[in-house]
Amino acid sequence: MKTVTLYRLLCSVVILILVALGLGSKAYSGWGEAWVQGYSGDLLYQMFWIWLVGSVKVRWRVENIAAIAFLISAIIECSQLIPFPAAWQAQLWWRLLLGTRFSGLDFVYYAIGCVVGAISLSWLKRRMGLKSAQNQPVSSRL
Fold it and tell me: Is residue 135 pLDDT above 60, yes or no?
């Protein structure tokens, strides 16, 4: 099996685990329930996007992917200050992707999720010997 194919397969497994954990966090009850339901999804959401984009764009720098994920999430978080129609906000897809309320604390968890996602994806890429395009000589990118 080619290295890139194996890398994408492993990324897919991680992505499925992140989705399961994210959806499961909304139904969790037990110790730390408020934190798990309210904030763990913020970390997992960032990690999901980093791993998803990183699996498709293998040669992109993980640090850039994480920065873009954080920026987009920050924009989405700030958009929650806009009063969108209640019918839109009642949709499950809206709540899962865009959230339901603005919270400044979300930015902290977005940052943590980006750091954890970037470190973990970078580790896998290094372990598999994959490099970003910016890390290679120009002649090898042509």
Answer: no
